[in-house]
Amino acid sequence: MELSDILRPEAVKVMGTATSKKRLFQELGDMVAASHGIDGAAAFAALQERENLGPTGVGHGVALPHARIEGINEVIGAFIRVEKPFDFDAVDKQPVDLIFALFAPEGSGVEHLKALALVSRTMRDSAVCGKLRANGDATTLHALLTESQNTQAA
User: Fold this and answer.
1) What is Dmax (Cα atoms) for the chain?
2) CB hemisphere CA count around 148 (13 angstroms)
3) Coil, helix or strand for 93?
4) Helix axes 126-133, 138-153, angle to 10 degrees
5) Among 14, 101, 137, 140, fewest CB within 10 Å belongs to which?
């Protein structure tokens, strides 16, 4: 599994600000609806439900919201870079500006975990995060995310 299998170029976005997790989750739902043709409201609700179990802000300005939803048959992702970091109830209490969301099929197990591990490894790389923060173009962000894994694998 590679990030290029999960993340389509049209599912990458730069936002000026995000006023709340709820607004961010709505945006992520809209993005996967547009890029993958799935129910955006269901994606939003699944993210909200998962977040109620515990915050997905993993620290160092990174959040990895994830959820299982009906109507898809593969793991899909969406990435948002927020220009003005905001409170996400992250484990380190730091504001978040890099958000990589994952959506998995309702019955998936191992594939969801593999994708989450892959995204987590990528987003823990401080060099990758630095490059993501230094760029404001969605196409460039997609290239950085999908190429970073290929470089790491080499």
Assistant:
1) 39
2) 23
3) coil
4) 160
5) 137
pLDDT in tens, 55-82: 899 999 999 999 999 888 889 999 999 9
The yes-or-no answer on residue 112 being catalytic is: no
Q: What is the pLDDT of residues 85-139, one digit of tens each?
A: 999 888 999 999 999 999 999 887 788 788 888 999 999 999 999 999 999 999 9
Residue 35, amino acid: S
- For residue 39, CA distances in Å to 6, 64, 110, 121 come to 17, 20, 23, 28
**Residue 135 is encoded by which pair of tokens?**
């760029």
pTM reported for the whole predicted model: 0.91
Which helix (DSSP H) or strand (DSSP E) does residue 133 occupy? helix 126-133
In the block, residue with structure tokens 């209490």: 93
